[in-house]
Design brief:
291 residues
Length: 291
């Protein structure tokens, strides 16, 4: 009997302790809430802090974009028809910046203290390359590498020769040529000495650049040509020509990167300032690889 009474007393004591604990927690809650931190900043300080946060986010984003554009990939828009039938005016392309290493022209602003190229990798014959125009070192040009250092390049009667050997060109058929009347050219598949092939087009026979002297490519330079052979001011034309200054030889330091992809392509007449033309695309040219 005494054992039962002891058990009952223990149960009552446990219940009392639990109730006291609940009461204590209930009483302590308002005190905890009262201890919560209160923002004492005025409206001006809040605005300044928010502006600092926004500035930090924008600064980090700009730094990341600069790193991507400098060392990895950079977009360009094709402004002319000199690389038809592979690139058309309005194509928005992606250029790989790390293929050839880094030079002073890899940065948004040329850095004169960088000499030559860092982690230099030579381009291959047939690469489509974006480079700074040697005569002003500011304008971005895009052409195809035809001649490597030490090569000889010449056009004879509409035929391309590299190191004295005719480059085979197989006729494919007529293609549209923008900016000319009639608006057609003949497309060919050209096979360069290392076996790489690409499309090119010829608009007229015996054009002014269809017969040239022999060019010997200096060390550290490259010979560039447009795929639209009769509508391209390239290495066949002297940069000192007073009427139609060309490209001349391109120093390796001027190379910016290799064109690898057509991301998208706008039709003629599209403009950033005309919102109704923003979706005026050549849909069949999206994500088209370049070679």
């Amino acid at each position: 009997m005494a054992k039962s009474d002891d058990t009952a007393n223990e149960t009552i004591a446990a219940a009392a302790n639990t109730a006291a604990k609940v009461d204590h927690e209930t009483v302590a809650t308002p005190e905890a809430e009262a201890e919560e931190e209160v923002d004492t900043r005025d409206a001006k300080q809040v605005a300044v802090d928010e502006a600092k946060e926004i500035f930090s986010v924008v600064a980090v984003a700009l730094i990341l974009v600069m790193i991507l554009r400098t060392f990895l990939f950079q977009p360009f828009t094709i402004p002319s028809a000199s690389m038809e039938p592979n690139l058309y005016e309005g194509d928005y392309i992606i250029v790989s910046k790390w293929d050839y290493g880094i030079s002073k022209y890899s940065f948004p602003i040329a850095l004169p203290f960088i000499k030559g190229r860092i982690m230099n990798h030579a381009p291959k014959r047939g690469d489509i390359v974006v480079f700074k125009l040697p005569r002003d070192n500011k304008t971005d040009y895009i052409k195809r590498v035809i001649g490597l250092p030490g090569d000889t390049v010449q056009m004879r009667q509409d035929q391309l020769y590299v190191n004295g050997v005719a480059v085979p060109a197989t006729e494919i058929g007529p293609v549209e040529a923008k900016g000319f009347e009639p608006r057609y050219a003949t497309a060919y598949r050209e096979s360069l000495p290392d076996g790489r092939t690409h499309l090119m087009q010829d608009i007229v026979k015996d054009g002014r650049a269809d017969d040239t002297g022999e060019f010997v490519v200096p060390a550290g330079n490259y010979f560039m040509m447009g795929d639209n052979r009769d509508n391209s001011l390239d290495s066949r034309f002297s940069p000192d020509d007073p009427y139609e200054p060309g490209v001349g030889f391109v120093p390796e330091a001027n190379l910016e990167g290799r064109a690898v992809l057509i991301l998208m392509s706008w039709k003629e007449g599209s403009s950033l300032w005309k919102p109704w033309t923003w979706l005026n695309f050549h849909w069949d040219r999206f994500f088209k690889s370049l070679h």
